[in-house]
Amino acid sequence: MVETSDLLEDAVFLLVKKAVTELPDDVVTALKKALERETNEVARLQLETMLRNVELAKKLQHPICQDTGTLIFFVEVGYDFPFKREVEPAIVNAVKKATREVPLRSNTVEPFTGKNSGTNIGGHIPWVDWSFVEGDECRITVLPKGGGSENGSALKMFNPTVSLEEVKRFIVNHVVELGGRVCPPGVVGVGIGGGGDIALKLAKKSLLRPIGDRNKDKNVADLEVDLFDRLNKTGVGPMGLGGDTTVLDVRIEVADRHPASFPVGIVMQCWVDRKASMVLTGNGKVIW
Amino acid sequence: MVREIRYPLKQRDVKGLKVGDVIKYTGTLVTARDKAHQRLIELYKRGEKPPVELRDGAIIHCGPIARREKDTWNIISAGPTTSYRMEEYTFDLIRQSGLRLIIGKGGMGEKTAEACKKYKVIYCAFTGGASVVAVEAIKEVENVFWLQELGMPEAIWVFKVKDFGPLVVTIDAEGNNLTKEVIEKAKESFD
Fold first, then answer.
1. Binary contact (B179, A240; C-beta < 8 A)
2. B64 has a chain A CB within 8 A of its CB
3. A47 in a structural domain
């Protein structure tokens, strides 16, 4: 009989492999739509090259981008899921195996010496974000987060009297200043409220939503659409070389805030908007 | 039209190229990112030579995924990394090495544009993330330096490439800077 821990490890390995070699369909569709409406020749060439690369990577099962990122896992575990203990060791072992066999680039270096562990395992890495939900299942999502886009993160602690227009201008200006560095057209994740860490966490978590998924709160959804329109009028374009599409989506998550604070966190995602998800059932089956 | 340029690159090979032109490159291509830039500059300061000749050559800001198979290295994935991080080293690198072509992504700043104008160098953007397209053009790994000390992404890899591209001229040998122009225009659009 196959041990659950082995089954879990194999499943997480396949999850990581899928995430780095196959771009989700919603992202591919969004890139194709961007190409359809693009009028700038240099921008068209960028989008065509991206789409050709996605096809080649899938066919050859090679990583879409050589920066296979820092591996961040989001685990939603049911209170009654029987294999809670097995999850974290399975993630660590699967990351080691994926680094060797996919292969992934080893992106885990000691902060001061820069020494590379060679395994993608290091202090707090891979990062695992836990949350608890009802039921006996466990959903694991992996977000391989590239360094170029992560360097576009920002946190601004506004005064609470800030106007919404000032907040919008801060976000638009930040994305424009980044230009091609974050490999546009990707996704802008925004977190508002909570506190410094919470705003950034919400911004990063928003990257897990699919393209075009609007916030359930109508006011927040309108803000997402307004920022999306404004950013796509800037002309920054694919890879910052000019063009009609600068972002594929803008997503905002909101938490209540302290009366003295108005935190705004931004986390950027590149056009290689990778993520993959699976569910483990209480009786040890994997649902893709 | 896509212009093709080949190693060794002389001034005349890059002088006629303007920002927005699309080219492909054939010849020796050397990877260098953050740590390699830092080390190269330190070498030049001490009056030593780099492990590979860069004069009239091309570098790419890139940290590949490579796999050792028997006696050869296979490159699995090799797109460009964000060039801005190399901004503080690039003027000196151009001045000291005599290289002619820099490939990266995301654009570079004023000092690089100044060096490009002064020393007749071009900076080209290769589509970020398009690392399997890049691999198609890499025909051979000629050598690798500093692998033990710096690790796979930061090591200096020496590739033989054929028709590497498409590359968009982003800073030309007159110092014109496409990404700077794009950002300035974008700012005007909402100011």
1. yes
2. yes
3. no
